From TrEMBL, chains A, B:
GO MF term (any one): DNA-binding transcription factor activity
Keywords on record: Activator, DNA-binding, Repressor, Transcription, Transcription regulation
Pfam families in alphabetical order: LacI, Peripla_BP_3
Protein role: Global transcriptional regulator of carbon catabolite repression (CCR) and carbon catabolite activation (CCA), which ensures optimal energy usage under diverse conditions.
Domain named HTH lacI-type: residues: 3-57
PANTHER family associated with the record: ARABINOSE METABOLISM TRANSCRIPTIONAL REPRESSOR, LACI-RELATED TRANSCRIPTIONAL REPRESSOR
SMART domains membership: HTH_LACI (SM00354)
Keyword Secreted assigned: no
Taxonomy, superkingdom: Bacteria
InterPro entries named in the record: CcpA, HTH_LacI, LacI/GalR-like_sensor, Lambda_DNA-bd_dom_sf, Peripla_BP_I
UniProt organism field: Lysinibacillus alkalisoli
Name of the protein in question: Catabolite control protein A
CDD domains: HTH_LacI
Length: 332, 332
DNA sequence: TAACTGCTTTAAAACGTTTTGTCACTATGC
DNA sequence: GCATAGTGACAAAACGTTTTAAAGCAGTTA
């Protein structure tokens, strides 16, 4: 039915091993033989069976990608970076959504190992102990992309979230003393371990008291952001500047302010943290910390290829540079 | 090194076949034997090798997903639908970006067949003849998601783009006679074959002349949309209503109007076509044709599972319902 | 001419499963 | 007590490659 390496070998009067060498670009084949085999391959329409190859070679040229939710802008952008580099190094990716659920993460990880992936890129807001253990026990390399492992024993690619948040906050604190932080999920390590501490430190250094009402946690989407800001405004002690956990939150902030007839940046300033293309698709366009999502994905995948090939890697924990893109939601 | 089915068989004093039956839930195993085997599996930490299984059974429980660009909102949402249903039916997905490039599409398709996927979901703005032929020659089922095959010989899931566009346009034509259509790429079959003809028909039925300047083709992003609208306004014969090819274009339209001090919907009305979450993340929120992206992906994957299992399928070309969500960018 | 060298090529084992044909055993019916 | 089903389990082949050890071969060298 389907054409196998055996058929090619027979037609070309060579052994399977020789066909295998030709297919895999091994140099130990006489040019004349190579030509003959190539012709037969073309004539018969032979397509190597990657599954059989995987079984024999113990390599699948496939890596697993576990992601909270591909329909989120952020993770989609990260994934694009991963996939591009994967393609460059001739890997395919098996993609699966975890919905940030530990059980699913563990189960997906196991499934992927069962499928004999050569490595895994993992994105997770929180690397739980069970997940940590599973990764440590993995027979293939694992790299975290845009995710924090607090033990720092697992390879990962991130930016310095603390410094980035601190800079953004300092920017606002130059002109404001009522600065709110509308944050994403509290169990997201980047929030609990870096952004919120950065907020606290930035205020403390200005000898300002921390008003807990100005730290709104667990805002997960646009609507919740709009609502949170409305509540802040109606509280009678409205902030004059906002630091947004991400662009979607920032959009909610800007629109809630607009709905309350507050001008940005004249009346209120806003800085976001992400800089997806959304940041430029609002009026006013958002000043934002640039989270290089594509690069994080790409570097993570590149790192994974090195680990797979057992190449020397200088540092397992890579920190990419960040910067603040000044646009129209701040006074500059 | 790694635990194989053979190790389990030896430890449990049964044959490999029996272990295989237990693992695969085959009923022809005595409960006592099953229990014994299960215990050994647990004790040894046996994890079946899906690659070996794939070779022996000729099934990989993996499907290929070829997508123009995962970092696009639209395709990410479609993919989420695909992946959810894939998971439900115990499939994994191999995801790859084609960048809408025919060569890449063909090559990815070939790679996936080489990896012995059980089926493929394909998204492509244009099913070229070469791609069509490759699909027809495929040894495994292929389903198009949100993509048009003009020969209608390939399984596909879509909405009635013509009717949807026609309805949106009719809506605008009730109050306007200067209606522009800011369209996406012309080589996207949905545009060239359905939306533009719908525009023409809607105008003709009102006995209105078609002003070619009001059909702006090949607008691929927010910035181009902003620019196109600015040019239209500066032309001295500005439209009073816009039909946007998608939400990103619509955002560009709204912001360009805003920049030109035109009020939406008071001065100008806008209808979008897509209704991603972006549509609600603008002021004013967008009236939009609802493109059920998640559902298209989900239904496409469900259809694929049926085809893989050789179940009877009533209709290869499925058309999902659409509707218009009225929000604030039109007068209703 | 015989031994040696270095390059090609081969035959066969290995990879870890599923699946098929067969056999052994138990319970049933007469 | 004997043939008859029906279960449950086994042995071995098959899946389509890669890889390893060994052999073949042509050209050198002494």
């Amino acid at each position: 039915m389907t054409v196998t390496i055996y058929d090619v070998a027979r037609e070309a009067n060579v052994s399977m091993a020789t066909v295998s060498r030709v297919v895999n670009g091994n140099q130990n084949v006489k040019p004349a033989t190579r030509k003959k085999v190539l012709e037969v391959i073309k004539r018969l329409g032979y397509r190597p069976n990657a599954v059989a190859r995987g079984l024999a070679s113990k390599k699948t040229t496939t890596v697993g990608v576990i992601i909270p939710d591909i329909s989120s802008n952020v993770y989609a952008e990260l994934t694009r970076g991963i996939e591009d580099i994967a393609t460059m190094y001739n890997y395919n990716i098996i993609l699966a959504n975890s919905d940030q659920n530990e059980d699913k993460e563990l189960q997906l990880f196991d499934t992927m190992l069962g499928k004999q992936v050569d490595g895994v890129v993992l994105m997770s807001d929180e690397v739980t102990p069970a997940l940590h253990d599973a990764i440590e026990a993995s027979p293939v390399p694992v790299v975290l992309a845009g995710s924090i492992d607090e033990s720092h024993t697992i390879a990962s690619v991130n930016i310095d979230y603390f410094a980035a948040a601190y800079e953004a906050l300092s920017h606002l604190l130059k002109r404001h003393n009522k600065v709110a932080f509308i944050s994403g999920p509290e169990n997201y390590t980047v929030n609990s371990g870096y952004k919120i501490p950065a907020y606290q430190k930035a205020l403390q250094e200005k000898n300002m008291e921390i008003n807990e009402h100005y730290i709104i946690k667990n805002i997960v989407n646009y609507d919740e952001s709009v609502q949170a800001v409305n509540e802040l405004i109606n509280s009678g002690n409205a902030p004059t500047a906002y630091f947004a956990g991400n662009d979607e939150i920032a959009l909610g902030i800007v629109h809630a302010l607009y709905d309350n007839n507050l001008q940005v940046p004249t009346d209120v300033e806003v800085i976001s943290f992400e800089d997806t293309k959304l940041a430029r698709m609002v009026r006013p366009q958002l000043t934002s910390v640039v989270l290089p999502l594509y690069d994080i994905g790409a570097v993570a995948m590149r790192l994974l290829t090195k680990l797979i090939n057992k190449e020397d890697v200088e540092e397992l924990t890579v920190v990419l540079p960040h910067r603040i893109e000044e646009r129209d939601s701040t006074k500059g």
